[in-house]
Amino acid sequence: MEPSESTTISSSSNHALNSTGGGCPWEVNDRVRLCRFLCYGSEGDLYTAREEGHVSVQSAGALLCLLQDGRGAEVVEEIKRFAQDGRAVRPGPSFFALALCSQHSELKTRQAAFKALREVCRDPAHLFSFIQNKKELKEGMKCGMWGRALRKAVSDWYNEQDAVSLAAALTKCKQREGWSHQDLLRLSHTKPANDAIALISKYVTKGWKDVQVAYADKENSEEVVRVLSYLEVVERVRHSCDETEVINLIEEHKLEREHLLTDHLKSKQVWRALLKDMPLQSVLKILGKMTSNKILEPGSSETQAVCDRIQSETSLKKAKIHPFSLLLSSENYKRGQGYQGKTKWDPDSSILQAMDSAFYKSFTNVEPVGKRFVVAVDVSTSLSSIVPGTSVSTAVAAAAITMIFARTEADTDVLAYSEGALVPCSVSADMTLAQATVELVKTPGGSTDCTLPITWATENGKAVDVFIILTNNPLWTFAASPVESLKKHRQKSGANSKLVMCGLTSIGHAIADSEDRGLLSVCGFDLGALTVIRNLAQDLI
Question: Among 161, 228, 225, which Cα is nearest to 190's?
Fold first, then answer.
């Protein structure tokens, strides 16, 4: 594809896919369904937390319709935006959609898809997923999979990368989903673009011994020398039984867990070395295991170093840790037991304090949407249940969600409702999580109506962009239709209001069978739910 053609597609796609074709602005059209699919793998208005369903052609009807209408290049631009801008909750749908576009009958669509491969599939695991999707889509078809276009796209994926970064990525993720780099380099007939890529290709396909023989007496470029040195370190650590040597290699060359043998990971000292430069998100995931294995012991220098990292504003900002992510990690660590029940630990008080401190510091990582929010909590039933798939009580989850909006969005009203009426709720931006939780649970009551917050805003002349209604009820209770209540608010306020119903303990129940794109149901709650709400608020889904 020529650069001029690419520019034309990009600029027109924003207009075409975001227009409603002159219809109702709240109509759920193919563009909306496609964006929902790319965001969370379903075209419907129901997001179920922590559910990673298998994506198939049956769940991508809008994608197929858009391809049939000749809008494939626009679809590829949308796939790129969701993959690059942090809009996708789950990456799988983007790889599936790109694979589908890459074998569409229209040449321009196929070209756009293959050209986008490097931008959408940024690491080896993504590339393997894309290839596996292509294989599954090709099954039952008479034509082969490895045509010239795919061979070129895969070759370019390897050739267009920085050699040292590629060597690190390939040695960390050698195979996935039944595919290896050896398979892809062979099937794509990759001709290395330079000497450093040629070295990596030889290492993957022939092994380290052949590399040593081939490069021992050669005059090598600076880049080839750097790659050779890196691969030598990787090989040394894989063949070393000396704990001290392994630790030194980890610390000197910033090696990661994936570079090590299973036997290495039996050593406490090796884990302590890994912890020093381990990504913060990974550290938070394994705190329980590290405490259980006595790698992190009360009062030790390692525990202090981990605590310092967890509550370092610089570390939190660099890792882009979200407060809700910290809450989930903290509550899981506090529980003292893994989900499978095998690993148990006594939570360390200093680690808990560090995570609590980090929770408040991480609010600076939440980028404001700049919309007018109402966050309403249903306190008609006891908020003492647990959010499915987490260790977080619904009371704490509701308090955290209200705090996230109260602290990061300038125009946020927090309401509690019970006994058929709204009750005073003074959750404010300067409260602690414990204070906010107490405020929410102090007024339990009977059955209630989840449309009350919308009615309140309408009657009080409060224009609202997004209503977020949190409830513990497994089934929504409405005195009036939520769709009709929302329409009345839109008409009176002039706002493009949207409604998100969050069933904190629900496992799959939608608000209503609605064709109004401003309505969305969330079942359970996780970090992805906040991304979904953000996307809805910004008209991205």
Answer: 161
Q: Which of 226, 216, 120 has the alpha carbon at shortest distance from 168?
A: 226
CA-angle at 164, arms to 158 and 169, nearest 5° = 60
pLDDT tens for each residue of the chain, 541 residues long: 333 333 222 333 333 454 434 445 778 889 999 999 999 988 888 898 877 767 888 888 899 999 999 999 999 999 999 988 888 999 999 999 999 999 898 999 999 999 999 999 999 999 999 999 999 988 766 567 889 999 999 999 999 999 999 999 999 999 999 999 999 999 999 999 999 999 999 999 999 999 888 888 778 788 999 999 999 999 999 999 899 999 999 999 999 999 999 999 999 999 999 998 899 999 999 999 999 989 999 999 999 999 999 999 999 999 999 999 999 999 999 988 877 667 899 999 999 999 999 999 999 999 999 999 999 888 766 666 888 888 888 889 999 999 999 999 999 989 888 766 777 677 777 888 888 888 877 665 556 678 889 988 999 999 999 999 988 765 666 667 788 889 999 999 999 999 998 888 876 666 655 678 899 989 889 999 999 999 999 989 8
Q: Which are the contacts of 326, defined by CB distance < 8 A and separation ≥ 6?
A: 284, 355, 358, 359, 362
The range of the structural domain enclosing residue 347 comes to 283-364
What are the tokens at 334? Answer: 């506090």
User: How long a stretch of residues is the chain?
Assistant: 541
Phi, psi (degrees; rounded to nearest 5) at 121: -100, 90
Task: Specify whether the CB–CB gap between 184 and 131 falls below 8 A.
Answer: yes
The amino acid present at 258, given as its one-letter code, is E
Residue 377 lies in a domain: yes
Q: How far is 87 from 322, CA to CA, in rounded Å?
A: 15
Q: 42, 59 in Cβ contact below 8 A?
A: yes
Which amino acid type is present at position 409? E
Q: Please tell me whether residues 287 and 400 are part of one structural domain.
A: no
Q: Under 8 Å CB-to-CB from 413, ≥6 apart: which residues?
A: 373, 374, 375, 457, 462, 464
Whole-structure pTM value: 0.87
- Separation of alpha carbons 482 and 512, rounded Å: 8
Whether 132 is in a domain gets the answer yes
Residue whose tokens read 């003292």: 336
- Asked if residue 344 and residue 433 are part of one domain, the reply reads no
Q: How far apart are the first and last CA of the chain?
A: 29
Q: How many domains does the chain have?
A: 3
* CATH number, residue 373: 3.40.50.410
- Residue pair 45/37 in contact (Cβ under 8 Å)? The answer is no
Where b means 16+ CB within 10 Å and e means fewer, 466-499 reads bbbbbbbbeebebeeebbebbbbbbeebebebbb
Residue 350 and residue 374 in one domain: no
Q: What angle do CA 133, 136, 138 make, to 5 degrees?
A: 105
